[in-house]
Amino acid sequence: MERVIDLNQPAIELRNVSVQYRLPTERVGTFKEYAIRWLQRKITYAHFWALDDVSFTVYKGEVFGLIGHNGAGKSTTLKVISRVLRPTKGRVLVYGKIAPLIELGAGFHPELSGRENIFLNGALLGYTREQMEAVYDEIVEFSELKPFIDAPIRTYSTGMNARLGFAVATAHVPDILILDEILSVGDESFQKKSFDRLLGFQSQGTTVVMVSHGMGRVEELCDRAALLEHGKIKAIGKPAEVIAAYRSDQN
Amino acid sequence: MSVTIKPVYDSARQSNPAITELKELRNYWYLLKQLVRRDILTRYKRSVLGVAWTMLNPLGTMLIMSFVFSNVFHQIGNFSVYILSGLLVWNFFAQSTNAAMSGLVWGGSLMKQIYVPRTIFGISAVGTALVNMVLSLVPLFLVILVTRSPIYWTIVLIPFVILLLAAFSIGIGLTISTLAVYFPDVLEMYQILLLAWMYLTPIIYPEDIIPTQFLGFYRINPMYWMVKLFRAIVYEGRVPLFSEIWPALAYSLGALVFGWIFFSSKSDEYAYRI
Fold first, then answer.
1. What is the ipTM of this complex?
2. Which of A208, B41, B113, B216 could form a disulfide with A63 if both were Cys (CB 3.0 to 4.6 A apart)?
């Protein structure tokens, strides 16, 4: 498939981004405790840098993979990009509208029907009523849930939930798509279908940032990849080379 | 290099957070409506009578209260209308501030994954209370009709009073939500506070049993003024005096501005904390 990656046009820029989580060494959950400890100056925190001086640029139309061990900072990177966390230091620049794929069920209400949840979920992603009405039929079609669309979502299986979530999040062609390990849901034929949809996005100029533990998938889909380790970029470049660095690291 | 396009999001561009919230809210108007709709629809989803409970609930409370208290307090005219009008105002405040707090604390899993304006949970809680309030006006007028109490023209001022009440509730709701994010215990403490606050507001007892030496104390209670305004137009049928309007107005605007600024000044922290 012919695609254009415009190296003059960044989609996402991270400039020396650091994110610090502050973890209380002991859990202080009440006013009284807090007040006493504050007076005694005994509130101590463990400072933990989830991201440490990370810089990279993702260009428009590129599919960019993030790999690394658990806790390396992959999800935190996605969060600073999608505006959920403001970085402690550094600067994040995003050029375009972001469509994040949210975790299973987080944006759904179990008592509402599939139909109602489509609109609720769309609103959470920042779409308007008109925008959702325009793609409603397509969402129902794609998720293959037509017979169940008026049943409350609590009656859906996990797979049905995942299908609906994916269909809503990808109903509009976004400028930038954020994927956190989401492709591993649904049965094989649905996985194939969602995979095809992502390839379709690519050809329409969507920039994709994905986190995956599936190295095969990263190598197959991504134009470039970055390896994160303890909040730092260890390697960045061609997927095959980055994966090799990741593997040699493991041994 | 053709990097001249303006970024849609720049983490370094930090204008006043209170203003940013307000601007973002405009883009999420549809979400606000969806959240209110969700709250109204799901609350009674599995019950047979459904939304009718919004009307039956205050009616039931009022019946019990007037049965219990009508002989305790010397008779005042139309005790049931008196109680119900006070209850509606109180319920609006108590429900919306509680919902704002739990919406932010428990709805936090969403905020860890996608960006939405943080104030939206507090505002949608008040939106839900607004819908409930309008529904509760139905039993109020039913009771007025059944007890053959007069209906005054001053009821056209109801929206004005509800507006003040809504502004006050948003302000308090945002303030306690902020506190609850840092100290989850606030959720429980607030329940006790609400109970005390309710008894310190003349809702189920007539105002003239308040000893005169405590009247000054009552006058610093914002809810005293909200209830007073609502009763003036619904129960007494008179246009509120200016001296009754300005304390309510001042409390509403004060709470709204304070709550909004306080809440949004911490808005970057919520995703880290919840």
1. 0.83
2. A208
Q: Which pLDDT value is given to residue B2?
A: 45
Domain A6-17+50-101+173-250: give its CATH code. 3.40.50.300
Tell me whether residues A93 and B28 touch, CB distance under 8 A.
no
- At B193, the amino acid letter reads L
Whole-number pLDDT of residue B116:
87
Task: Scan residues 99-118 of B and list those with Cβ closer than 8 Å to A.
Answer: 109-116
Separation of CA A82 from chain center = 8
- For residue A232 the two structure tokens come to 């730092």
DSSP assignments along A63-94, one per residue? EEEEEESTTSSHHHHHHHHTTSS--SEEEEEE
B52 lies within 8 A of chain A by CB: no
What tokens were used for B199? 């008894």
The whole-number pLDDT of residue A191 equals 82
Q: What is the DSSP letter of A49?
A: E
Tokens standing for B145? Answer: 């009709």
**Residue boundaries of the structural domains of chain A:** 6-17+50-101+173-250, 106-169
Residues present in chain B in total? 274
On chain B, the residues whose CB falls within 8 A of the CB of A36 are none
Give, to the nearest 10 degrees, the angle between helix B158-182 and helix B120-146: 140
How far out from the chain centre does Cα B258 lie? 16
Residues in chain B, pLDDT under 70: 1-5, 14, 74-75, 106-107, 274
- Cα distance between residue B133 and residue B54, in whole Å: 9
User: Measured between beta carbons, which residues in chain B are less than 8 angstroms from residue A128?
Assistant: 30
Do A239 and A225 contact (CB within 8 A), yes or no? yes
Among chain A residues, CA nearest to B184? A29
Interface contact flag, B184 A29, Cβ < 8 Å: yes
- Residues in chain A, pLDDT under 50: 1
Q: How far does the CA of residue B188 sit from the closest CA of chain A (Å)?
A: 11
Rounded to two decimals, the pTM is 0.87
* CB–CB contact B183 A34 (8 Å): yes
Q: Residue A19's closest chain B neighbor by CA? A: B272
Q: How large is the angle between the packed helices B186-199 and B79-106, nearest 10 degrees? A: 170
* Chain A residue nearest residue B187, CA to CA: A30
Number of Cβ within a 10 Å radius of residue B168: 28
In whole angstroms, what is the distance from residue B50 CA to residue B69 CA? Answer: 30
pLDDT at A136: 96
Residue B64's pLDDT is what?
A: 86
What's the gap in Å between the CA of B6 and the closest CA on chain A? Answer: 7
